[in-house]
Design a protein that fits this description.
The complex is a heterodimer of chains A (about 350) and B (about 280).
Chain A (H helix, E strand, L loop, with lengths): L7 E11 L5 E11 L3 E5 L6 H9 L6 E6 L2 E2 L10 E4 L11 H10 L5 H14 L15 H13 L5 E5 L7 H18 L2 E6 L2 H7 L2 E6 L2 E6 L1 H6 L4 H6 L4 E11 L2 E6 L4 E6 L5 E6 L5 E2 L8 E12 L3 E8 L2 E9 L12 E6 L4 E5 L1
Parallel strand pairs in A: 3-8, 3-9, 6-7, 7-8, 13-20
Antiparallel strand pairs in A: 1-2, 1-4, 4-5, 9-10, 11-12, 11-14, 12-13, 14-20, 15-19, 16-17, 16-19, 17-18
Chain B lengths: L1 H37 L6 H8 L1 H34 L2 H12 L6 H12 L4 H8 L13 H25 L3 H9 L4 H12 L1 H16 L3 H6 L7 H10 L4 H25 L2 H4 L3
Helix pairs in contact in B: 1-13, 3-7, 3-10, 5-7, 7-10, 8-9, 12-13
Classes of the chains: A alpha+beta (about 350), B mainly alpha (about 280).
Amino acid sequence: MNGTSSEPLVRFIDVRKSYDGKVDAVRGLNLEVANGEFLTLLGPSGSGKTTTLTMLAGFEQPSAGRIFVGAEDITNVAVEKRGIGMVFQNYALFPNMTVGENIGFPLKVRRLPTAEIADKVTRALAMVRLEGLADRRPQQLSGGQQQRVAVARALVFEPRLVLLDEPLGALDRQLREQMQYELKHLHARLGITMIYVTHDQVEAMTMSDRVAVFNAGRLCQVAEPRLLYEQPDSLFVAQFLGESNTLPGTVRQRHGGQCSVALANGAGVIATTVGVGDKVNVAIRPEKVAVGPAAATCVNRYPAKVIEISFLGDQLRVRLAALGREDFIVKFANAPDQVMLAPGNPVEIGWRAEDCRALGE
Amino acid sequence: MRSGSRHAAYWLVVLPAVLMLVLLYFVPLGNVLLTSVTDPKPGLQNYGLLFTSASVQRSLLTTLRIAAITTAVALLLGYGVAYAMRAASTRTQRLMLVLVLLPFWISILVRSFAWIALLGTQGPVNSALVAWGLVDEPVSLVRNETGVLIGMIHVMVPYAVLTLYANMRGIDVGLVAAARSLGASRFQAFRLVFLPLTAPGLIGAGMLVFILSLGFYITPALLGGGKVLMIAEYVAVQINDTLRWGLGTMLAATLMIAVLGTLWALSRVVDVKRLFGT
């Protein structure tokens, strides 16, 4: 990757968008995207991620706030003057043009000489490994090939920024994984800034330098995938990314970065403090829970009873009755030294204070 | 056996319609074709008139010219209306559709007389033109080719609008957005992406309007004031007044062959079935 400079390429400043004047599709958005970064906007449908992308592309105007690309305020700049490449979910290839003409389109409208266009189209086709298909019609290509054409078309005019709106949504799983790899590879090779929208958390985690999680029009958290997973700062993020056991309770005492929480059934938990409120949900990842003898060293220890065991091949997923509930999930690797469990067995579970977070409402 | 008897039942259902079509359409049509080569005596001399008779040729040329101009103007006006409809909100779209269909509820006869009243030298159009000082004295807008064109375009625009609108609705709006995001101005996006994609609609609407225009009778008869003789009126004169049935039927046959020929030629280029939405 080319050197990621500290100067942000894209800045959203207090951006708000309302389509009907009543409900905000996006509110109070402040977000910076570094030059050369691969940032993913992740969230359920209607969370504001696509609206954010659409405003950056210029198809929608913010109701309030400014958007900068580099030093330039582009809030009121026309779509075609923004110089931002975009890849659409349904590819949006022009059916009246050949593959070559599709890719050459951004160059043609910029009135580049024909010879230069031909040269750049050839190179763009090679970049997405579609050599020799310039004269085909888009309709004659497979879904994966069409998506590659769309990517080549968004990159061929060397934009400073490429937006990808759920570009792999229509592909089957295998092709999806291959395209994820190829996009990531292109990003690394070209050093271009990419902003990617998806509702698929695995896709977001595998591809991104950073992930911005949206919910109900708000940016919840933006961080590197690992940090986002290990240290979510809201219940929504903890539940949207991967799986979490969430235990509602009340903070009794705070000391240092930790707090002791009284759960609904009276049990106490020592957790990492996040936020200031006293009403909290203690979130603990299923794979961070120790089972059997391994639980002995943990600060939080509870008796439990096995209800159900699912064998997932490389993993075991166990449902337990613990802490007054019957949906406590524990996952552990199918390792040689695993604890042997059977439904009905009593077992001790435990986890460290660092691995569970007391998240505010 | 069962499927055979079921087919027989279907045939019974369509039989009345088939009989009616054969007796009232194909038999008379055959008669027309037969008359064109037998009256007044057997042979192709009626068709020879296409190459020798100046009045026949003038009528054919007038018909082609008027049909061509009507088609061009109706396409231009219809394209604008269809484009606006596509861009409008669903509610406005519905309202516009009703307004486009409204003229179909009024008889062509009534509409033609209305045009005569509107466009006459004492009519409101001329009064307005004179009052605004755009012209010094009333211009003749009716009882000539201009009148015929105005009347025919008025009848034809809805056909153009409906065909073009159906075509435009099938075009993904995302394509124009994509073109803009790739650096195309509004006009470039229209010219390079939207317009080419409406080509099938333009061809379809053009063919429809042109073919319908070729056979126009009432509008040219009334708005042309007897001075603009299109082929249908020419045929009527031969049958009703001069009783030259051979000439009349020959022209009718020629018109039909021309229309079928055009459709056939078109079918070589585009999918005709899709054009007319069947």
